[in-house]
Design brief:
- This protein is α+β, with helices and mostly antiparallel strands.
- It has one domain.
- The protein is built from 8 helices and 12 strands.
- The strands form 5 sheets. It has a 3-stranded antiparallel sheet, with helices on one face. Strands 3-5-4 form a 3-stranded antiparallel sheet. Strands 2-10 form a two-stranded antiparallel ribbon.
- This is SapC family protein.
- InterPro entries: SapC.
- It holds the Pfam family SapC.
């Protein structure tokens, strides 16, 4: 369940948010939405994969953090084992909303039923005593703006991947603790051979549109699949 409201100092003057890491705060997830303008930051640690939603006929990109539902191999108690979180996870419990009439003006919303909402005196304040955004909220608002911009630009990026047939489905078998294997399916990744075979004109078009850098970052991130599998094996052995 969720309880989204437009964030404002009149209604949320005393609101506090847990900023710590932990499964109790919603961090125990195997994958998180990612947008192309953050691929460069994420590619150092996370495999970046793609998913096609048949019902919506649309692609999305995901930073992979585990191989099964509820598994996050970057979460170790209250420690996050990477320099950065994907923005869609880092901004919770906040999100971008827009007016019901379809207006372009973005609004900061908050999910008051999210586990990061603090009760009592714990947590970080969202507004100060004068009703102004705290430095914490200002940082969140900056990430929300970057995430919104990336989401709006991603449609053209995914259209280019589709136009040049640069994605291919893949499957990965990962050993399970206690024996057996789990097969990771339902995702796609960049086809390096097709990318290499693109004509110079296509490469120039992708570069001019700003798609080439996130493409190469997503491709480079695939080396993290092996690292993630080894991280899982190390935990299972321990």
């Amino acid at each position: 369940m969720s309880n989204h409201q437009i964030l404002n100092p009149a209604d949320h003057a005393e609101l506090r948010v847990h900023t710590r890491t932990g499964s109790e705060f919603g961090d125990k997830v195997m994958a998180c939405l990612a947008v192309p303008n953050e691929f460069r930051r994420l590619a150092t640690d996370y495999p970046i994969l793609f998913h096609y939603d048949r019902e919506r006929s649309s692609f999305s990109a995901l930073a992979l953090m585990g191989f099964e539902k509820g598994e996050n191999l970057f979460l170790d108690g209250d420690d996050w084992l990477a320099p950065a979180k994907p923005m869609a996870l880092a901004i919770q419990p906040f999100l971008i909303g827009r007016s019901r009439d379809g207006g372009a003006q973005a609004q900061v919303h908050i999910d008051l039923d999210h586990p990061r909402i603090a009760r009592g005196g714990d947590g970080v304040r969202v507004f100060d005593d004068a009703g102004r955004p705290t430095p914490y909220l200002e940082q969140v608002m900056s990430m929300l703006a970057e995430l919104d911009e990336g989401h709006r630009a991603s449609a053209a990026f995914f259209a280019a991947l589709d136009r040049y047939e640069l994605l291919e489905p893949f499957a990965l078998d990962v050993p399970r603790e206690g024996g057996g294997e789990h097969r990771l399916v339902g995702y796609q990744l960049i086809n390096e051979d097709r990318l290499r075979a693109l004509e110079p004109g296509a490469i120039s078009e992708l570069h001019a549109a700003g798609h080439l850098l996130p493409l190469f970052m997503a491709l480079a991130s695939l080396g993290n699949l092996g690292k993630l599998a080894r991280r899982r094996a190390s935990r299972n052995d321990g």
